[in-house]
Each structure stands twice: as structure tokens, then as C-alpha cells.
Amino acid sequence: MKEEVKDKLCQHAGKILLGGTGALLTLSVVTLGAGLLSDGPAASDTQADAVVQKLESNLGDARAKLATQHTALLVQLPGMDIERVNRDRATGRSLLLSLTDSSASTRTVKEQQVLLDARYGFLDRKSRVLTEFVPEWMTATGATKGAGTTYTLSDLDIDVSRVQGLNYSYTGVARLDPIRVGPDQNSAAKSAFVVFTYFTSEDGTVTSLDAYRASSKTRDALAAASEEQPSAKPTG
Questions:
Q1: How far apart are CA 78 and CA 2, in angstroms?
Q2: What's the pLDDT tens digit per position in 71-90?
Q3: Contact 173, 12 (CB under 8 A)
Q4: Euclidean distance between the first and the last CA atom of the chain, given in angstroms as a whole number
């Protein structure tokens, strides 16, 4: 299971890195433009404009190709119900927020486990969400010593990972940024990344859920990658 999570992180890290393409092309424009200007009169404004237009065209073509491929993949999925997918994504977002909100809770780990167990029928005493994620998350964010660090959801990517009959499965990667650091935590709290997977039945009911907090090394890599792309509102 841990290896599967690593694979999913790598896949989503690739998507995050893709968003940095624009920044890299912009840097290329500046670099090439500076080179042309340093050549003096020989590098005319017309030449510089041509370089910029070429790079912008390449970026536009790349984005259009990616959008076409994404649409084609969705069409290939048998019986894909886009409206249902949108509803399921909203459900996944709510689940994530419920789990990570425990960082600002004054409840004990056991009290938080009982609360989630009573709220969600698909969780049970053997669920890794309850036995692994909740204790680890509350410890890492300082919630085991009282109200810990409060986070806001800054980026969310939820994709359909499998369609099997009437059952859909999803994989999500979320970035949460600290907005208020708990009294027992370092003031230089870093962003946190959570990977989660869940399944839904035909009526949209969630039948299973797993969640994992990214390791420090993976978190730093994802944070660096996401900083390279333009800011965007949470999706999914």
C-alpha cells in the first residue's frame, strides 16, 4: 500500500510540475530577450517579438494538447457520469476537510476517532484512517497537546482512478497551508500534503477511505513544485 501511495504522489507531482511550464517559458522569454538586446542594433525589436510569439505559441499548443488528451481519456472510460464525478469530488473534499480539521481540535485522539467513527459508517475500528492517519496527523500538527496548527486548503486535485461497473474510485492530493500555529508548535510551520483515496457506490455513498500524510521529503518536493506554478483556487 505504501508503494502505491508513492506512485500516486509521483503522478500528482507530475501534474503540479506541469503547471510550472508557463513559468519556465516566461524565464526563457526573458533570457532570450536579454540576449537579443545585448547584441545591439542587430537584434531588432521585430526579432524579439518573433521569439516571444513563438514561445507563447508553443505554450498554447502544449496546453491545448494536454486538454485534448484529458478529454479523450474521460471519454474512453465506460459509462462515465461527469455529473456524478463532480458530486463525488465535492464529497471527497468534505471528507478531507473533516479529517484535517482535527489539527485545530481540543479533543483527544480517542475522542476524535469516536467522533469520525460515529459520523461515517464506512469507517470501523480497523480502518487505517482511524488507527494511523488520525493519530499521526494530530501528533504532527500539535493537536495532541491541545488545539494545534490550523490549516486552510490551498490546492486540491481529485481524479477518477478507476471505474468498475457502478463503483468509482478516486485519488486526491491536497495542499494545506498553516494560518494559525498552535502554542506548542514551531512558528515556522510548513505546508502539509495529504494523499487520499476513496470509493463511491452508484448513489454516491462512500464505501471506503484511506488517507496518508506525505513525508517531510515528499512534502518539500511537492511544495517546491507547486511554488513554481501560478496560484490557483482549490479544485475538485
A1: 29
A2: 555 555 555 688 999 999 99
A3: yes
A4: 24
- E strands, the chain, are 150-164, 167-180, 192-200, 206-213
CA dist., res. 177 & res. 179, Å (int): 6
Q: Looking up cell 509521483, which residue turns up?
A: 10
What residues have CB less than 8 Å from 44, skipping those under 6 apart? none
Backbone phi, psi, residue 6, to 5°: -60, -45
pLDDT in tens, 16-40: 444 444 443 444 444 444 444 455 5
Cα–Cα distance between 236 and 226 in angstroms, integer?
Answer: 17
pLDDT in tens, 128-178: 999 999 999 999 888 888 878 889 999 999 999 988 888 999 999 999 999
The dihedral of CA 234, 7, 198, 68: what is its sign? Answer: positive
Question: For residues 60 and 154, which has the higher predicted lDDT (pLDDT)?
Answer: 154
Residue with cell 510550472: 20
Q: What is the arithmetic mean of pLDDT over 177-196?
A: 77
- With contact defined as beta carbons under 8 Å apart, do 133 and 99 qualify? yes
Nearest to 144 by CA among 102, 178, 95, 100: 102
φ/ψ of residue 201, rounded to 5: -95, -175
Which of 7, 17, 8 shows the shortest CA–CA distance to 171? 8
pTM: 0.61
Contact call for residues 28 and 58 (beta carbons, < 8 A) = no
Query: 211 vs 220, which has greater pLDDT?
Result: 211
